[in-house]
Design a protein that fits this description.
Length: about 190
């Protein structure tokens, strides 16, 4: 079931992104090719999971991934929600960090045997999830900066960058608290 959902969502998203790119090219906007390539690669990323014997992420997490990139790329960039709603970027940084934290939880559960997990304290889980989500948030912000330096994205000021980083930290704290509280006391 997971494999069919991943294939369906990947193919659907690639087709939509390709259609938007073709529309942009036909309207004379050839500068969008880096964005189009990035959107297609992000939509194909979960397809790499199909090469694993066991997909480590549950279906809600996979669907959440596509919902997140739909909100980021389609609503945010293509339909210009970033320009129309000032809170859109901040909200996506918060939820992106929360999503990254849940990916961290899934990776933690995948890599740690149950016998070892029982001996790990809530604080270690909290720190792992927090660090994982904050790192992803920082990498995302670094990619935005690199895109601006290379001319693919608009430049942001320090206030926007710090707002994004603090919002990502807030989302990371929320999901880290959730992960720690879900763990039974040792």
């Amino acid at each position: 079931m997971k494999k069919k959902v991943i294939l369906f969502l990947s193919i659907t998203f690639v087709v939509v992104m390709a259609a938007v790119f073709i529309r942009d090219i036909s309207n004379g906007n050839s500068s969008t090719w880096p964005d189009a390539i990035g959107r297609v690669l992000f939509s194909l990323l979960p397809v790499l999971l199909l090469f694993l014997k066991k997909i480590p992420f549950n279906l809600p997490l996979i669907i959440s991934y596509y919902l997140f990139i739909f909100c980021t790329f389609f609503l945010g960039a293509i339909l210009k929600f970033y320009d129309r709603f000032r809170w859109w970027d901040t909200m996506l940084h918060f939820f992106g960090s929360v999503f990254a934290g849940f990916v961290g939880i899934a990776i933690y559960k995948l890599l740690l045997p149950n016998s070892v997990e029982k001996g790990i304290s809530r604080w270690m889980i909290f720190l792992f999830v927090l660090t994982f989500a904050v790192t992803i948030s920082a990498l995302w912000e670094s990619a935005e900066f690199l895109g601006a330096v290379m001319g693919f994205m608009e430049e942001d000021d320090n206030k926007d960058t710090m707002t994004d980083m603090l919002t990502g930290l807030a989302g990371a704290i929320v999901v880290a608290c959730y992960a720690a509280l879900r763990k039974r006391a040792v």
